[in-house]
Amino acid sequence: MIPTPHISLKDKSLIAKTVLMPGDPLRAKMIAETFLTDIVVINEVRNMFGYTGKYKGVPVTVMGSGMGMPSIGIYSYELFQFYGVENIIRVGSCGAYTKDLNLYDVILVDDAYSESSYAKTMGLTSSKILKADRRLNTKAKKAAEKLNIPLHVGRIHSSDVFYNLKGSVHEERFNKQGCMAVEMESFALFANAKALGKKATCLLTVSDSLVTHEATTAEERQQSFTRMMEVALEVARKSK
Ligand code: HPA
């Protein structure tokens, strides 16, 4: 059933088996231009930018997910279900819930806790914790080791709320649910992968801290972003 409501592309061979998904569509453009060769622009994605190119000879698509679970939920579902995508690796940023994380640290998500109703509403599960794909994570750990990039591996919080009126929810999420950081997309991505028998994981860089209130600037983000991308691209290469 292509085209789909949000991806009006008629030729599914233009989408690679592995998709890297940053939240920001402009990030997708930057990733494609920085890391991929032989780039084809996929103009047919509603509200997003998509690109397919090659990384060390392996086809990879990069596409923005938009912010939040409803948005990544729509694009990742259509890619998995209708465009033959097997692997989606989200590459994003997060806020630290513990002082053990420093700005720029790279996190490999082991599982995502969420109070979101996404998985329950779609009829999948009422579990509040969903796992990243073990095979992709093994590849990510191996790649990071080979590239000498330190990874924090653990649980993150997928939140629906960026501006929270209850100032300090991070303490409860860290102490009770064991979440080391917060972002807003992984839980829905993992739900779709589980629902459709596909693979998904997520790599994050720490862009701010809810404990120390430090934050990175856009320029400063670049270097840690590159380290995260090297791991993500290696996973894509090994998943061909
Ligand atoms: N909250 C939610 N998502 C985020 C944050 C945050 O503080 N930082 C980066 N992504």
Q: Descriptors for this entry?
A:
single chain; 240 residues; alpha/beta; Rossmann fold; 34% helix; globular; binds hypoxanthine
Written account of the structure:
With 240 residues, this protein is of the alpha/beta class. It has a single domain (12-238), classed as Rossmann fold, CATH 3.40.50.1580. The protein is 34% helix and 27% strand. The chain has a 5-stranded mixed barrel, surrounded by 5 helices. Strand 8 (151-158), helix 5 and strand 9 (181-183) form a beta-alpha-beta unit. Helix 2 (69-82) runs parallel beside helix 6 (186-196) and helix 4 crosses helix 7. The radius of gyration is 17 Å and the shape is globular. Bound molecules: hypoxanthine. Hypoxanthine binds at residues 93-95, 159, 162, 182-184, 207-208, 210.
User: So what's the overall shape?
Assistant: globular
Q: What sequence of helices (H) and strands (E) makes up the elements? A: EHEEEHEEHEHEHEHEH
Mean of pLDDT: 96
Class by alpha and beta content: alpha/beta
Radius of gyration: 17 Å
Discrete helix count? 7
Low-pLDDT segments: none
Q: Do you know the CATH architecture?
A: 3-Layer(aba) Sandwich
- Described by its quaternary structure, the protein is single chain
CATH topology: Rossmann fold
CATH-wise, what's the superfamily?
Nucleoside phosphorylase domain
> Which range does the strand content fall in?
25-35%
- For the record, the count of structural domains works out to 1
State the strand order across the main sheet. 5-9-8-6-10
Small molecules in complex: hypoxanthine
Strand elements, count: 10
Mind summarizing the main beta sheet?
A: 5 strands, mixed, barrel
